[in-house]
Amino acid sequence: MSRIPQTPIVELLPSTVPFVGPEALERQRGVAFKARLGANESGFGPAPSVVAVIAAAANDVWKYCDPENYDLKQALARHHGVKPENIAVGEGIDALFGYAVRMFVAPGISVATSLGAYPTFNFHVNGYGGRLVTTPYVADREDPASLLALARAENARLLFFANPDNPMGSWWSASVVSELIATIPDGTLLILDEAYGEFAPEGTLPPLDVSNPRLLRFRTFSKAYGLAGARIGYVIGEAELVKSFDKVRNHFGVNRVAQAAALAALADQAYLRTVIGKVERARARISDIARANGLAPLPSATNFVTIDCGRDGAFAKRLLDELITRGIFVRMPGVAPLNRCIRVSAAPDAELDLFAELLPEALRAV
Amino acid sequence: MSRIPQTPIVELLPSTVPFVGPEALERQRGVAFKARLGANESGFGPAPSVVAVIAAAANDVWKYCDPENYDLKQALARHHGVKPENIAVGEGIDALFGYAVRMFVAPGISVATSLGAYPTFNFHVNGYGGRLVTTPYVADREDPASLLALARAENARLLFFANPDNPMGSWWSASVVSELIATIPDGTLLILDEAYGEFAPEGTLPPLDVSNPRLLRFRTFSKAYGLAGARIGYVIGEAELVKSFDKVRNHFGVNRVAQAAALAALADQAYLRTVIGKVERARARISDIARANGLAPLPSATNFVTIDCGRDGAFAKRLLDELITRGIFVRMPGVAPLNRCIRVSAAPDAELDLFAELLPEALRAV
Q1: Which of residues 101-120 of A touch B (CB under 8 A)?
Q2: What is the predicted pLDDT for the residue at B32?
Q3: Per-residue pLDDT at B308
Q4: Chain A 313-342, CB below 8 Å of chain B: which residues?
Q5: Domains of chain A
Q6: Is the dihedral angle over the CA atoms B257, B259, B262, B264 positive or is it negative?
Q7: Is the peptide bond before B5 cis (omega within 30 degrees of 0)?
Q8: Dihedrals φ, ψ of B192, to 5°?
């Protein structure tokens, strides 16, 4: 029996899972990881208050979520000093990136990003038939000047910029980002990924300006709030632009328990501060471990440290494989020259003890 | 500052929340509903074993989900007697409908459905610029012969059919559905929505045939398993067709706690049987209440009863509003002549007591 034709865009897409999960590696190896340091999850976990809320919310899981995410939008608006209509909530930043790309990108439309920046954003651009154009990182940072020039030259509809950045952990000051926002070309929307914003030093995130229809800022409960598995993120922007998410989003797509968890997480800012402190200490420790082994940790404003292994991508990949073989889950950037590095997530001391213990062995094996 | 142009498809879409949630009605009324009988949720809840699993999984919510949904696909494959590669898991049936539509529908492509059938499927078709063509229900059932003729005449790429049906609760025997499957036109894919399949009498669901590349069958944990708020559903089909979901899906989109909950729910078939028994009794009771008030309950193979109010849509809407005013959340079909009815979900006795108590009052007020 003949197959049904797919759309011309989808016909050409690969049927792959772009990021291999640690669970898949565990199945291949037949043994669980001892330390989960690869996905920039928060091993410090969500607040105990949040865990309690999830357990309590389990009794209500037979109900659909509130499709308007009303309570959470109210709380986020108060937290950020904006209005609820400046916020859209979605089933994780990845879903929100997908919606944003779907709103603006079609075949023939260009999208500017840095070579080696967040692959899932690129997955969505390819998925809607957009044309990705890239400019390299400069000194391990996304380069605002090059991105602006690229967006102008290619008439890009979207410009992706992460601050702080993944996978390099680098960042720019708020003044540089404000300048980027101010000089964004006519006809270009800035997709500002601030997933790691809570970890960044004071003066990294520009003040919120929700009058600007050329800017969307993406935040998540997956990182500092420790709720990666709950799939809940949000976008902040100008009201009419934000309202457009209602055109395309999966209105009942957010898990009801996740809504309750996010609300509780936001309310527990004291816990958030303890996590940020623990992440700072973990970053210092990962950096010390790297240096003790002759490797060069890069500065980081995130919950991970990117470690320059000092050789090429093949060398870093061998080191990564040796760590994985020893039960340490880490990841690495996918594109040269960033792929001379491996990326290690902040985690509690027990896991970092294992990293400290097994890194020398892995290096000897390479 | 000028706005960024959206794609021609998205530019024309409305910025609305298509289904108003009960929480929005509660906010308007300023008081909580006494009985939540409008969204075909399972007021009987998930199994106690599932609630316990959710509470335990809360400690792991800092981890992303397994993007391959491996364990759940293995369990579903065993449960259904198919292979894991015949199953795709997604963040609810709504998301899976969205992915299926995205794969096959573009401007100029026709999609056939019944006039008054599931609106969220239509939302996705409109959202990707498809051309919806419809044929009326016949005697409150979707009509396979008309749908087939429509699909042929309009060269439809997708044909939507729900068995059992929402919003009417009606159903066809497996032999009729098998005949529909066998005579689906060349070039048409059958989107078979079986969200309510667990409630249907023996002999309603055709046997699974995963060799057919023109058929996708959609199932959910939202209804019989009581996990609407968890957002987890799946699709069963031919392996290569199912693999195409990997092209477009949000790979990390399923909540990790929901994965664990679904796995536990599937394992507790004894609880599922008790829910199905309770739903049968609740349907009988809703039907008795309707008859006692001079209304005509329709036969149902679902977890709700659609009640013919015996007059036009305006009358049914007034009755619905009077029920809502009295704290009873119900919904109704959106299109004539189906909208002469209201739709009441199966629920525990306490809520049905309220329905029995307040329906006469609401009728008098109309």
Answers
A1: 102-106, 109, 120
A2: 96
A3: 98
A4: none
A5: 20-45+270-365 (3.90.1150.10), 48-267 (3.40.640.10)
A6: negative
A7: no
A8: -100, 105
Is some CB atom of chain A closer than 8 A to the CB atom of B18?
A: yes
Residue A296 has pLDDT above 90, yes or no: yes
Which pLDDT score is estimated for B126?
Answer: 97
Give the Cα separation of B309 and B294 in Å (integer): 8
Amino acid at A72: L
The verdict on whether omega for the bond into residue A167 sits within 30 degrees of 0, i.e. cis, is yes
With a cut of 70, which residues of chain B have pLDDT below it?
none
Residue A32 structure tokens: 């669980």
Per CB-CB distance under 8 Å, the chain A contacts of B6 are: 103-104, 244
Using DSSP's 3-state secondary structure scheme, residue B20 falls into: coil
Is B157 in Cβ contact with A4 (below 8 Å)? yes
Contacts 24+ apart (CB under 8 A), B104-109: B104/A4, B104/A5, B104/A6, B104/A7, B104/A10, B104/B157, B104/B158, B104/B189, B105/A7, B105/B129, B105/B130, B105/B157, B105/B158, B106/A7, B106/A8, B106/A9, B106/B130, B107/B9, B107/B131, B109/A7, B109/B157
Mean pLDDT of all residues in A143-151:
98
CA distance B36 to chain A (A): 9
CB atoms within 10 A of CB A196: 26
pLDDT per residue over B58-70, tens digit each?
A: 999 999 999 999 9
Does the interface ipTM go beyond 0.90?
A: yes
Q: Are B345 and B304 in contact (CB under 8 A)?
A: yes
> What tokens does A312 get?
């090429």
Any CB–CB contact under 8 A between A29 and chain B?
A: no
Number of separate helices (H) and strands (E) present in chain B: 14, 12
Q: Where are the alpha helices (DSSP H) in chain B?
A: 8-11, 22-29, 48-57, 70-80, 93-104, 119-127, 144-154, 174-182, 239-243, 245-248, 256-267, 269-292, 313-325, 349-365
Separation CA A63–CA B21 (nearest Å):
11
CA–CA separation, B50 and B224 (whole Å): 13
Give every CB contact of residue A63 below 8 A, 6+ residues apart in sequence. A256, B36, B39, B41, B228, B229
Question: For B176-197, how does the pLDDT look when each residue is reduced to its tens digit (9 = 90+)?
Answer: 999 999 999 999 999 999 999 9
Residue A17 has pLDDT above 90, yes or no: no
Cβ burial, residue A129 (10 Å; 0-12/13-18/19+): middle
Cα A68–chain centre separation = 24
B102–A8 CB contact, under 8 Å: no
User: How many residues belong to chain A?
Assistant: 366
User: How many residues are listed for chain B in this entry?
Assistant: 366
CA distance A130 to A114: 15
What is the number of H-type helices and E-type strands within chain A?
14, 12
- Which DSSP string do the residues of B202-232 spell out, in sequence order? TT-SPPP-TT-TTEEEEEESSSTTS-GGG--
Strand partners, A186: none
Q: Residue A2's pLDDT is what?
A: 82
pLDDT of A116 > 80? The answer is: yes
Interface test with A, best of B111, B123, B252, B329 (most A CBs within 10 A): B252
